[in-house]
Design goal:
The protein has about 500 residues and is of the alpha+beta class. It contains 17 helices and 23 strands. It starts with about 35 loop residues before the first strand and ends in a 24-residue tail after the last helix. The relative contact order is 0.12.
Length: about 500
């Protein structure tokens, strides 16, 4: 493996280094800081900075808290991060300054708001200097053994600048034990447990890696000029005019460099992968090709199956989506049921996703701003309202109240996934069990709370049937948030070996 060049670390004076300057707060105990983000990388494009900007913009739905881009000119790395949306952070001036350096490649990151982790110091890519030069890393997922590793490092005098689990990866990479190995990055990745789709930028290359379980998506493509690129979703490749080639395989490291694309394995893929089915249900863009299928088609199938499983007795006047994420399933439901599809709720395109707002107050305010009910369509009608999911329930209750206030005669709520009863430790910020409305509550209890006339969820079996393909059967999806069946022991997450203080000589 080609090692990063050992040139003197430099940064543009007009751009901040991506590491935090002592900002902080205590790091979370246990698997608390859960992130669901978007990553992008390209190598061999002189316009790498602008391509990263476009790729992140196309994946803005994956994270609205912060964003960042790091670039390389073949000898040094520089970068910029900020809180907010991509176009707010990367002004024309910032992009011009990054572009002046990005003669070789770039990586980028959109960060998804997390409970207790909405801090500027956690914006990625994280950029640090170590014995082999500079490295920047951007991560989509969640490392369930990060807290254990971090505690052991801190007990041995290491200083952390962020509260993010991603920073542990840099400490591992820089440790003597990993540096003595033939492939330091592969050795580092083998120490990690949990979900990760990562991109690393070194002075002379990009490295992209995906965990052996394949929890989070990661795809490889080619730009119009033939340069290799990586993204969380294929929608980012479409945005830059790139061609989709394939997924990065679970357990694989893909290297983008002047030599082209090279591949090696740091671990064998598990026999039963754990692809996140919630990517299909909610999070991915409808136009993306995820886990071998176009998301829009899967969501329409979810709606069709929901219509078969949960019809409304006596029918209804309209099938109405809860925009925007319920639209695909509502189309499927209307087609299968034969009930007219009608949009009576108009979204405000300038308000972001309410699910990923960091506080409930922000989520409630966003709902009121985001959704405008068309009274003439709703008033006096029996409605089947289709939404993708219910998490906490408070924002859904606000949506139903808006429909009632507009004169809806009946509201029959249909959800295109099963009840979410369990936290996610692999990259989705589902809260603690006590904050999940479906935890230890019956569907009837939830119906009464939401104030609807009927409530039905898609069954787990029905959801998996819709997501399955000949190449990816239903049991190759992770359903822990619905079923509580975790593929990794969350209480004892370190599966590869025990990290005791007495073993710290290899750190």
């Amino acid at each position: 493996m080609q090692r990063p060049s050992k040139t003197r670390p430099e940064t543009l004076v007009t751009l901040p280094v991506l590491r935090a300057n002592g900002a902080g707060g205590a790091h979370p105990a246990g698997p608390e800081a859960k992130e669901k983000c978007g990553v992008f990388a390209v190598w061999g494009e002189p316009d790498a900075a602008h391509l990263a900007y476009t790729g992140l913009y196309a994946q803005q739905h994956r994270g609205q808290e912060s964003a960042g881009i790091a670039v390389s000119d073949g000898q040094r790395l520089v970068g910029h991060t900020g809180m907010g949306l991509v176009p707010e952070i990367f002004t024309t001036r910032i992009l011009k300054e990054l572009g002046a350096v990005a003669a070789k490649g770039s990586i980028g990151h959109n960060r998804y708001s997390t409970s207790g982790g909405s801090l500027s110091c956690n914006a990625q890519p994280l950029l640090e200097s170590y014995i082999d030069g500079q490295v920047a890393v951007a991560h989509n997922g969640n490392l369930v053994n990060a807290a254990t590793l971090r505690r052991l490092y801190e007990e041995n005098g290491h200083i952390f600048h962020t509260t993010s689990d991603t920073e542990v990866v840099i400490h591992l990479l820089a440790s003597p034990h990993q540096q003595r190995s033939a492939d330091p990055l592969a050795a580092t990745l083998r120490r990690l447990q949990g979900a990760f789709s990562m991109v690393f930028l070194f002075a002379d290359r990009v490295e992209a890696a995906r965990d052996p379980w394949g929890w989070r998506p990661l795809v490889l493509g080619r730009t119009e000029k033939g340069a290799p690129c990586i993204a969380s979703e294929s929608v980012a490749l479409d945005a830059i005019g790139a061609t989709y080639e394939r997924e990065v395989e679970p357990g694989e490291v893909v290297t983008l460099s002047d030599r082209g694309v090279e591949s090696r394995r740091f671990a064998e893929a598990v026999s039963r992968p754990a692809h996140c089915v919630f990517e299909h249900v909610y999070f991915a863009s409808p136009s993306s090709f995820v886990f071998g299928q176009t998301v829009q088609i899967v969501r329409e199938r979810l709606g069709e199956e929901l219509a078969r499983e949960a019809p409304v007795e006596g029918g209804a006047d309209y099938v109405m989506p809860m925009p925007d994420s319920g639209r695909s399933a509502a189309n499927g439901y209307a087609r299968a049921s034969g009930i007219p599809y009608r949009e009576g709720i108009v979204p405000n395109r300038y308000v972001g996703r309410t699910f990923i707002k960091p506080t409930q107050t922000e989520r409630n305010a966003a709902v009121r701003l985001k959704l405008n009910v068309i009274r003439e369509i709703v008033n006096g009608r029996r409605l089947i309202v289709v939404d993708d999911s219910i998490v906490r329930g408070t924002t859904t209750q606000a949506k139903m109240s808006q429909l009632r206030a507009a004169g809806a005669k009946e509201i029959h709520l249909r959800i295109s996934c099963p009840p979410i009863r369990h936290p996610c430790y692999f990259g989705v910020d589902f809260p603690e069990r006590t904050q999940l409305i479906a935890n230890e509550r019956s569907v009837e209890d939830i119906r009464k709370y939401l104030g609807v006339d009927s409530l039905r969820y898609l069954s787990l079996e029905g959801m998996l049937k819709c997501a399955a393909t000949p190449g990816i059967p239903g049991d190759h999806y992770c359903t822990a948030c619905f079923s509580g069946e975790y593929r990794i022991d969350i209480d004892h997450p370190i599966a590869h070996e025990a990290f005791e203080p007495r073993q710290m000589q290899w750190f």
